[in-house]
Write a structure and sequence with these properties.
Blueprint (H helix, E strand, L loop, with lengths): L1 H6 L6 E6 L3 H8 L2 E2 L2 E7 L6 H6 L8 E4 L4 E3 L1 H8 L4 E8 L2 E8 L5 E9 L3 E12 L8 E2 L6 E2 H9 L5 E4 L3 E3 L3 H14 L1
Parallel strand pairs: 1-3, 6-12
Antiparallel strand pairs: 2-3, 4-9, 5-13, 6-9, 7-8, 10-11
Length: 194
């Protein structure tokens, strides 16, 4: 989280952090301000998915806002590139098989659908879970994930994309962290680049 917060562009004036797991440690570490930006904490009492996490932030959000996952690592330039768009999803081109959200485009080159799961060999656009959204997102009922008690942000965004174009921005860099192994791998990458 600290790495991403340090890379946010100056246009981002305030940070809203949705907390549940390890909330006390996160709040103690970052406090009420970090890097000159006010931090507001929103409590997700029950983990009901990324769509629900954004929905509970609605009272604190202005017309356009940036959404990112606290456990993924993003590139500073990718933040800047997607801020130039009204509604945007940042994607990473993947060659080979992968597990996650595969982004499907419509004929105009905008977001059509995000398909979760394991994807076979080939060339894919993966959802990095970095978005710029506007308040139109809140017009749509949250998409309930099949077989789960969670509401998906990507699936809700795909509903919105039927009415409001969602542009794609290709990522310069994205590192997904799902566990300690992924975190250690990123630390090695970071050390090697210094």
């Amino acid at each position: 989280m600290e790495y991403n917060l340090e890379k946010l562009p100056k246009e981002v004036e305030e940070v809203i952090v949705v907390v549940n797991y390890l909330k006390k440690q996160i709040m103690e570490y970052f406090g009420e301000e970090f890097g000159g930006r006010k931090i507001t904490y929103v409590f997700q009492e029950e983990t009901l998915g990324t769509g629900h996490a954004v929905k509970i932030c609605e009272p604190f959000l202005e017309d356009r806002f940036l959404v990112l996952m606290g456990d993924d690592i993003y590139d500073e330039q990718d933040f800047l590139n997607c801020l130039n768009k009204n509604n945007c999803i940042v994607v990473k081109e993947i060659r080979g098989s992968f597990a996650g959200g595969k982004v499907k485009l419509n004929k105009q080159g905008f977001l059509e659908e995000i398909i979760e799961g394991k994807h076979e060999e080939g060339r894919h656009l993966a959802n990095t879970s970095l978005y710029v959204l506007d308040h139109n997102f809140f017009k749509y009922d949250l998409a309930l994930l099949e077989g789960k008690k969670e509401y998906g942000l990507p699936q809700t965004l795909a509903k919105m994309a039927r009415d409001y174009p969602v542009e794609l921005e290709k990522a310069n860099f994205w590192h997904q962290i799902n566990d300690l192994e992924g975190l250690n791998k990123f630390k090695k990458l970071l050390k090697a680049s210094q």
